Amino acid sequence: MFRPSRIEIDRAAIAHNIKELKSRIPQDIMAVVKANAYGHGAVEVANIALKNGATMLGVALLEEAIELRDAGIEAPILVMEAQFPQYAGIAAEQDITLSVFSAEWLKEATPYIEEKPLTVHVKVDTGMGRLGLRTREQLDALLEEAGDTFVIEGIYTHFATADELNSDLYYTQQERFERLMDGLHERFRYIHTSNSAGAIRMAGQDVPYNLVRVGIALYGLYPSKELETLYTFLRPAFVLKSQLMQVKLLEAGQTISYGATYTTTEDEWIGTVPVGYADGWLRKASGFEVEVGGIRCPIVGRVCMDRFMIRLPKEFPVGTDVTLVGGNIDIDELAAHLETINYEIVCQFTNRLPRHYV
Ligand SMILES: Cc1ncc(COP(=O)(O)O)c(C=O)c1O
After folding, report:
1. What is the DSSP string of 225-266?
2. For 11-219, CATH number?
3. Ligand 1 site: residues with CB under 6 angstroms?
4. N or C: which end of the chain has fewer CB within 10 A?
5. Under CATH, which number does the domain 238-357 receive?
6. Per-domain residue ranges of the chain
């Protein structure tokens, strides 16, 4: 790579986060590494998580699971997104666990499964309205259909509002799940309901669940502002850095970038930073600040496809480091500026930005 812009992933921070989670959470931990480990690099993060306390991996796509297998990872992997039944055999061959939610799916998948049975977790929709079966009748029909072709290893649900401390729906979903599970707890090796937010909220409680699915906390980020107080031990792992590629003094009255939305009002030092919206540094970041030499500098004018401009307080040499995310620039602050959440920020950076592991 010739460009100076890069994402730096702090391996030690991920190891720290998983160890801290492990010390607080009694259940087994599934490290959720879907979407390239929320932009952090799936294979790297999976290996760190497994070495430091996770026993299972969670992804969204069959492709993501196969990437981990191709990298030599042998730990159990759960695919959480629905898959078409014709790919069941591919999953079974590679010991990849799929999520299922209807007897019909099992019936349709059966002809595709040859020697090895397919391990599955049953997905229950208790209030997310997304994927999953909703009634005990549907669950009973699915269990009946399983035969020897499927190993029904787990059952799970997903909370819509675990990150909101005053949400009734969180408790309603737990009640619905327990009602559906009546008398069936022994039937499953794994029963799981919690993401990062739920995992830490349930940590001190006596619950009949033995696995949690932890994503955002693994990366050192909070599931929500409200949960910051429960999660003070986290260390963010994600840093985005670049370097100044041009520095120039512009006199008053000069315009910057497309649309000429910014005009200098006096002699101003302007630096060009080679990261743009094609890297996932969105146009909406105009007006946000980045850090140069420990000083916060405003982005002036519109962010372009490959670069943006900042106002510097003084002349800095070309090649000076610029921090876009990390250090004093918190992802949550950027998320607020972009009117989104930290999850979306870390997922949005494209592969044009190399990931360096430090
Ligand atoms: C089903 C499921 N479980 C767990 C997670 C992990 O959630 P979090 O990143 O909030 O820990 C996700 C992520 O969206 C998910 O879809």
Report:
1. GGGGGG-TT----EEEEEE--EEEEE-TT-EETGGG-EE-SS
2. 3.20.20.10
3. 32, 80, 158, 195-197, 213-217, 223
4. N
5. 2.40.37.10
6. 11-219, 238-357
Which tens digits make up the pLDDT trace of 241-253?
Answer: 999 999 999 999 9
Output the CA 351–ligand 1 centroid distance in Å. Answer: 22
For residue 266, what are its two tokens?
Answer: 């006096």
- Angle 329-335-338 from CA coordinates, rounded to 5°: 115
Output b/e per residue, 267-282; b: 16+ Cβ within 10 A: ebbbbbbbbbbebbbb
Give the Cα separation of 132 and 269 in Å (integer). 56
The residue length of the chain stands at 358
Å from CA of 255 to ligand 1 middle: 44
pLDDT in tens, 43-92: 999 999 999 999 999 999 999 999 999 999 999 999 999 999 999 999 99
* 98-142 pLDDT per residue, tens: 999 999 999 999 999 999 999 999 999 999 999 999 999 999 999
- How far is ligand 1, taken at its centre, from the CA of residue 62, in Å? 16
Q: Determine if the pTM surpasses 0.90.
A: yes
Residue 251, judged by CB atoms within 10 A of its CB (0-12, 13-18, 19+), counts as exposed
